[in-house]
């Protein structure tokens, strides 16, 4: 995976977010972190480039799926990984294309997120 990839990680659980962010950083990715929707929207508006989005489905001030529309207005082919521990994986509300949208249920392994990012970003660059 190219080290120039920038990922926005939106997760309200501090320990989960920190562990995943550090794992991704250790594997050469640049990680922007948000713990709620408002912070994520600000990053989406300000960031010059995002290569992928990892969004928790349930956040204190909204739903991770609502962040995809503004992100894809800026980056139409942005790969998105939705994560959830609540079983609310609403696949019918996405493109259905595994190169663009993936769902991963908690608990997950850190490696499974990295593998999905590698797969999705390499498909996007082909």
| Secondary-structure element order, N to C | EHEHEEEHEEH
Give the spatial strand order of the biggest sheet.
Answer: 2-1-3-6-7
Helical percentage: 25-40%
Could you tell me the mean pLDDT?
88
Task: Count the DSSP helices.
Answer: 4
CA-based gyration radius: 13 Å
First-to-last CA distance: 13 Å
The portion of residues forming beta strands comes to: 15-25%
Outline the low-pLDDT stretches. none
Q: Indicate the multimeric state.
A: single chain
- The total count of strands amounts to 7
Specify the structural class. alpha/beta
Taking the sheet with the most strands, its summary is: 5 strands, parallel
Q: What is the overall shape?
A: globular
Keywords: Phosphoprotein
InterPro entries: Bact_response_regulator, CheY-like_superfamily, Sig_transdc_resp-reg_receiver
Organism: Gluconobacter cadivus
Protein name: Response regulator
If you had to describe this structure to a student in words, what would you say it looks like?
The strands form two sheets. Strands 2-1-3-6-7 form a five-stranded parallel sheet, with helices on both faces. The protein has a two-stranded antiparallel sheet with strand order 4-5. The chain contains four helices and seven strands. The protein has helices at about 15-25, 35-45, 70-75, 110-125, and strands spanning about 5-10, 30-35, 50-55, 60, 60-65, 80-85, 100-105. The longest helix is centred in the last third of the chain and has 16 residues, at about 110-125. The mean pLDDT is about 90. The chain is an alpha/beta fold and about 130 residues long. Strand 4 and strand 5 (about 60-65) form a beta hairpin.
């Amino acid at each position: 995976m190219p080290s120039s990839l920038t990922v926005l990680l939106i997760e309200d659980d501090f320990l989960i977010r920190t562990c995943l962010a550090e794992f991704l950083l250790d594997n050469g990715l640049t990680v922007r972190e948000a713990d709620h929707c408002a912070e994520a929207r600000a990053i989406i508006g300000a960031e010059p480039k995002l290569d992928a989005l990892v969004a928790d489905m349930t956040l204190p001030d909204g739903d991770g799926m609502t962040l995809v529309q503004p992100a894809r207005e800026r980056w139409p082919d942005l790969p998105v990984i939705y994560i959830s521990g609540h079983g609310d994986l609403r696949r019918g509300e996405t493109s259905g294309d595994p190169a663009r949208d993936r769902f991963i249920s908690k608990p997950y392994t850190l490696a499974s997120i990295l593998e999905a990012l590698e797969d999705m970003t390499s498909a996007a660059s082909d």
